[in-house]
Amino acid sequence: MRNGGQILVESLLGLGATRAFGVPGESYLAVLDALHDTVGRLDYVTCRNEGGAAFMAAAWGKLTGNPGICMVTRGPGATNAAIGVHTAMQDSAPMILFVGQVGTDMRGREAFQELDYRAVFGTMAKWAVEIDDVARVPEILSRAWTVAVSGRPGPVVIALPEDMLTSRSDVPPLAAPLKISEPAPEPAALAEALGLMSSARRPLLMLGGCNWRAEGQAALQAFAEASDLPVIAVFRYQDQFDNHSACYAGEAGVGMPPHVKRIIREADVILAVNLRFGEMTTDGYTLLDVPTPKQRLIHVHGSDTELGKIYRPTLGIQAGPNAFAAALAPIRGNWAGWRTRARADYLASLELGPLLSPVDMGVCTAHLRQVLPEDAIVTNGAGNFAVWPNKFVQFGPQMRLLAPQSGAMGYGVPAAIAAKIAHPDRLVLCFAGDGDFQMTSQELATARQAGACPIILILNNGIYGTIRAHQERHYPARVSGTDMVNPDFVQLARAYGFHAERVEVTGDFAAAFDRARASSTGAVLDLNISPEALTPRQTLSQIRAAALKG
Q: 75 with 135: CB under 8 angstroms?
């Protein structure tokens, strides 16, 4: 006989889980007790805030393809963790959040820290469930894992009443990983899709999602290159296609370059593989008409609920991205020069003139393009600073980007920690704004304790830059609430045991980055960025002048 906590932990081991991120709580003491016996097989990473723990789990799911596991206590623990659930949902990343719950004998009384988890998370997660029979722990966990990884991947929330964790049962725990194959495209649908693409004058391939495998990525790239097609990655998924390929033409996301907008608008047939049509990828749903686009749209997705959700496709195909890519055969048509122009415009977008800042991020990012290892992992949270990793770092086939489609500030640091835990021998580089960094900076203690030490670049301009830009555009010369008085980030990082430096001018960056790479304790580089240097293309002065003129 085992108690519910032991059944849960042993089932997670059977499914293949190796890490759980969390903040301990009295509501799931039986689970913590069971984890005492799994050190080295299923390790519990002790975090400093439930939001940071949930970000780590969401990033783990995005990076590995297996559900990131997060464990938090009831009430405040769950609401703190909600930001990671929302991020995992918008990222289509598999995740399971386990939340302590009051005992079943107290439900409905507004007991201490009680929440109705189905109501709170019902629209935020793919599935929210509460266990009410200890014998059903393996059944519910098996279903949760399946839901998290299948179709459109996403988060599942499981509430754990205290008495369900201490009650005992002879039900056997799960003992083997799940194997779920992707749906493959119907031959007739595949032939129709290739026919539509062949008849185009300006065909476009778009891709997204985090559930790609190396063989699927290689097959899609081979198809695009043999067919001479331009390729656009959707918001924060440009790591899923080799940016060095002659077919790659850029990312459709926040701060979308004009050439990317033009390509999407001018395309007459779009093959969209494994993406949801979010606001950022469609420039506020303006690049394609709702509900019927002018472009002939072939939408391929593993989940039937994504097909036709916003746009009526000319052809919808329910298929997994890797199975679909493997089935593709090269096409040819009358679009000479279309891909060439797209690629030339992308390469031109990487070239920047001098920026009005003591540390010029254009120069720094160009240096990073030269020195980052082929298997580097890059992370970021949210803010204007994210334009640098998202538009000016080139991702090869082994590199990864962990960045939130939800636009959640504070994601970058926890994501970097999770990535370093998953791949301790790879360079992990986090881009963070000063406001973004302070959302989860306490997780540096988690990193130090876990021996997971990334390099963090703080783009420090003393303002909430994205909001300041909106203020200057819509309410020029009426700034409110966007100035920040920051701590000494160097001293703060050193207090957590990190190597840390202040980089005052551009010329000092390369040597400082070399020292950061050499550090065995991780590193924080505090970069002196002018508040004027908001983006590569616009400064506050330009935004203000345009707003006043308008």
A: no
Q: In what order do the strands lie in the sheet with 43-46?
A: 43-46, 19-22, 68-72, 95-101, 155-161, 127-130
Q: Which CATH architecture has domain 2-169?
A: 3-Layer(aba) Sandwich (3.40)
Q: CATH top-level class for 187-348?
A: alpha beta
Taking the C-alpha atoms of residue 437 and residue 347, their distance in angstroms, rounded to an integer, is 30
Q: Where are any strands of DSSP class E within 102-202?
A: 127-130, 155-161, 168-169
Cβ proximity of 31 and 8 under 8 Å: yes
CA distance 287 to 266: 9
pLDDT digits (tens, 9 = 90+) for 239-252: 999 999 999 999 99
Evaluated on CA atoms 517, 519, 522, 524, the torsion sign reads negative
- Say how many C-beta atoms besides its own lie within 10 A of residue 329's C-beta: 10
In this predicted structure, what is the pLDDT of residue 410? 97
The residue ranges of the chain whose pLDDT is under 50 are none
Look up residue 268 and give its two tokens.
């007459």
Query: How distant, in Å, are the alpha carbons of 140, 199, 234, 297, 365 from that of 292?
Result: 40, 20, 20, 9, 39
161 preceded by a cis bond (ω within 30 of 0) = no
Query: How many angstroms separate the Cα of 269 from the Cα of each of 233, 257, 272, 325?
Result: 16, 20, 10, 17
Q: Are 220 and 300 in contact (CB under 8 A)?
A: no
Classify domain 351-549 at the CATH topology level: Rossmann fold (3.40.50)
- CB burial string 174-189: b at 16+ within 10 A, e below: beeeeeeebbbbeeeb
Residue 439 is given by DSSP the state H
Domain boundaries in the chain? 2-169, 187-348, 351-549
pTM of the model: 0.95
Among the listed residues 422, 426, 446, the one whose alpha carbon sits nearest the alpha carbon of residue 377: 426
| List of residues 6+ apart from 179 with CB closer than 8 A | none
154 within 8 A of 57, measured Cβ to Cβ:
no
User: How many whole angstroms separate alpha carbon 145 and alpha carbon 8?
Assistant: 12
Q: What is the DSSP letter of 405?
A: T
pLDDT at position 542 is: 66
Tokens linked to 373: 């290892």
